[in-house]
Design a protein that fits this description.
The protein is an alpha+beta fold. It folds into three domains: 150 residues, 2-Layer Sandwich (Beta-Lactamase), CATH 3.30.450; 145 residues, PAS domain (Beta-Lactamase, 2-Layer Sandwich); 194 residues, Heat Shock Protein 90. It starts with 10 loop residues before the first helix and ends in a 9-residue tail after the last helix.
Length: 513
C-alpha cells in the first residue's frame, strides 16, 4: 500500500479545491490545450491536469489516458502536494514513495513521472500538471522542461481563477437583480457581494473588463466605453484610468475589427474566443474570451484576455528559421546535384547520373513535407503524394489509409522507397502504358504499419534480370526492416511492406533519436 501524504487530508487545502467548483465538470478547451502542450514540450505519451481530492484524484483534462480519476492510493501527484514543488521521478520502481503503487507494479506499468503543483494564490496545492511515461527516463525532465511544466501549472491556476471570476460575476448579477426585485436589503447585500467580487476581480493575473458598445445610425459598432477594469488590465494594455472612458479617445487608431467582434457579441449574446494583434497597443497579441453580460439591450460585453505577444513572436521566429532552413537545404541539394553532374560529366552511363539526381530530388521533397511540421513529423499521405507525383499523373494513383504521422527518419526512408517503386512503374510497369494505375494502401495493425503497392492494367510483371541499387532499396523496405513480400504476376507487380509501428510512427513523447 502506498503511503498517503498528510498534506492530502488538510481541511483547508480541500476547502480551497472545493471553492473552485471544478470537480466532475465537463471538458473545457483551455485545460485540454494545457495537456496537449505538456505532452509536446516534455515528449511523453501521457499528460494530465490532476486535481487531488481527499479520497481520489480527478482529471480535469487528460491526453493519452482514458481514465477520468483514480483512487488516492494510486496517486503519484499526492507526493507533489507534500513538497509543493515540481516532483521529478526518473524511475518510479526505484523511488520508495512509488515503487509499490499498483499503477507501477501492474497495468499500465508507468515508469516515469513529473508533476508541477497547482498552487493557489493562498498558497495551497490542489493538484498538478503532470506528465507520465511507461519508460523510465534517466535524469527525468531537463531544466527547460521543468520550467515549461511550471508555467503551464500557473496557466491552469489562471484558468481556474478566470472560471471562478466568470461565475462570481454571473452570481453577483443574479443576486443584485433578485434583491432589487424583492426590494429588501439591496444595499447591504450589494456591498458584501461587491467586496467579494472586487477582491477576486483584482487578484487575477489575466486582464478583465466590462465594456458598453455604442452603435452608429446604421447599426455599426463605433466605440465602446469601459464600465470597469481590473488591476491587470493596465499592465496588459498600457491604458491608464480607463474606467468611464471611450476606447477611441484612449487609442484613436484601434482597429475596427475589435469593435466589430465585440459588437456582434453584444447583439447576439454568443461568446467568442480568438487571438488577434492590437496594433494601437504597441502591437501586442492577445488571447481573448468575450461574452455578453448585463441586462438585455444594455449592449455590455465582459472580456477576459491574456498577453500572448511572447508566444506569437516565438512562433513567427520559428517559422522564419524553418523557412531559412528549407532555403538552405534546397541550396545544399542543388549543390550536391551540380557536383555530381560535374564529377560524372564524362561518364558513359548517363542513366546512373539521372537516377542519382532523381533520388536526391526525392529526399528534397521529403524534407519539404517535414519542414511543414518543423521537422517533428510528416503526414504519410503527403509523403506518398510527394514521391509519386514527381513520376506520374496523380489521376492514375489511388491512395487509401488512415492518417498517420511518420518519424523524420521513416519519412525519408519511405520517400526513397516510393521513388524507386514509381520509377519502375513508369519504366516497366502499369504507368508505362496509358491505362495503367497504381494503388497505394496502408493500414495499422497491432504493432505494425503495413503498406501495399499494387499495379494494375499494365504489362505482365517479371523479376528483374539484374539487381541494381533501386532493387536493393525496394528489398530493404521501410526503415531498413527488409520485411518485404513481392509478387510478379500476369496482372502486374505488387508488394507488401511491413515495419514496427514504434520505428515509423511519430508519437508525442516518443524517445526515438
Amino acid at each position: 500500500m502506498t503511503e498517503i501524504p498528510a498534506a492530502v487530508r488538510d481541511p483547508q487545502r480541500i476547502q480551497h479545491l472545493k471553492n473552485y467548483d471544478i470537480l466532475d465538470t465537463p471538458p473545457e478547451p483551455g485545460f485540454d490545450d494545457v495537456v496537449i502542450l505538456a505532452r509536446q514540450l516534455c515528449r511523453t505519451p501521457i499528460a494530465l491536469v490532476s486535481l487531488v481530492d481527499r479520497d481520489r484524484q480527478w482529471f480535469k483534462a487528460a491526453s493519452g489516458l482514458d481514465s477520468c480519476e483514480t483512487p488516492i492510493s494510486q496517486s503519484v501527484c499526492a507526493h507533489s502536494l507534500a513538497q509543493q514543488e515540481t516532483l521529478n521521478i526518473p524511475d518510479l520502481t526505484k523511488d520508495e514513495r512509488t515503487r509499490r503503487n499498483t499503477l507501477v507494479t501492474g497495468e499500465p506499468f508507468i515508469r516515469f513521472y513529473a508533476g508541477a503543483p497547482l498552487i493557489t494564490t493562498e498558497g495551497h496545492a490542489i493538484g498538478t500538471v503532470c506528465v507520465i511515461d511507461t519508460v523510465a527516463r534517466p535524469g527525468g525532465l531537463n531544466v527547460e522542461q521543468i520550467a515549461a511544466l511550471e508555467a503551464l501549472a500557473r496557466q491552469v491556476i489562471t484558468l481556474l481563477d478566470q472560471r471562478r471570476l466568470i461565475g462570481a460575476h454571473a452570481e453577483k448579477t443574479a443576486e443584485l437583480r433578485a434583491e432589487v426585485a424583492e426590494r429588501k436589503g439591496a444595499q447591504a447585500a450589494q456591498q458584501v457581494s461587491e467586496g467579494r467580487y472586487r477582491s477576486l476581480f483584482n487578484s487575477l493575473d489575466a486582464g478583465f473588463c466590462v465594456v458598453e458598445l455604442r452603435f452608429d445610425d446604421h447599426g455599426t459598432p463605433h466605440d465602446y466605453r469601459f464600465i470597469e477594469v481590473n488591476d491587470a488590465f493596465v499592465r496588459l494594455t498600457g491604458l491608464k484610468d480607463a474606467t468611464g472612458k471611450w476606447m477611441r479617445d484612449l487609442a484613436p487608431d484601434h482597429e475596427q475589427h475589435w469593435f466589430d467582434i465585440y459588437g456582434k457579441v453584444a447583439l447576439t449574446g454568443r461568446p467568442v474566443r480568438f487571438e488577434h494583434e492590437a496594433g494601437a497597443l504597441d502591437h501586442r497579441w492577445y488571447d481573448v474570451h468575450a461574452f455578453g453580460t448585463g441586462a438585455p439591450g444594455a449592449h455590455q460585453v465582459a472580456i477576459l484576455f491574456n498577453d500572448i505577444t511572447v508566444r506569437r513572436n516565438a512562433e513567427a521566429q520559428q517559422k522564419l528559421l524553418n523557412d531559412e532552413l528549407g532555403h538552405r537545404m534546397k541550396n545544399s541539394m542543388a549543390l550536391v546535384q551540380a557536383i555530381a553532374s560535374q564529377t560524372l560529366r564524362g561518364a558513359a552511363d548517363r542513366t546512373a547520373l539521372k537516377a542519382f539526381t532523381q533520388r536526391v530530388q526525392a529526399l528534397s521533397r521529403a524534407h519539404d513535407v517535414l519542414l511543414q511540421q518543423s521537422w517533428a513529423s510528416a503526414n504519410l499521405a503527403d509523403v506518398v503524394l510527394g514521391a509519386v507525383s514527381a513520376q506520374a499523373d496523380l489521376a492514375r494513383v489511388r491512395l487509401s489509409g488512415p492518417e498517420i504521422s511518420l518519424e523524420p527518419k521513416a519519412a525519408l526512408s519511405l520517400s526513397l522507397l516510393l521513388h524507386e517503386l514509381a520509377t519502375n512503374a513508369v519504366k516497366y510497369g502499369s504507368l508505362s502504358v496509358p491505362d495503367g494505375i497504381v494503388e497505394v494502401h496502408w493500414r495499422k495493425e497491432a504493432t505494425a504499419l503495413v503498406m501495399m503497392w499494387t499495379e494494375e492494367g499494365g504489362p505482365p510483371a517479371t523479376p528483374p534480370e539484374r539487381t541494381g541499387l533501386g532493387s536493393r532499396l525496394i528489398d530493404i523496405g521501410m526503415v531498413g526492416t527488409s520485411d518485404v513480400r513481392k509478387r510478379f504476376d500476369i496482372s502486374g507487380f505488387s508488394a507488401e511492406f511491413r515495419a514496427p509501428l514504434d520505428l515509423v510512427e511519430y508519437r508525442i513523447g516518443s524517445l526515438h533519436d
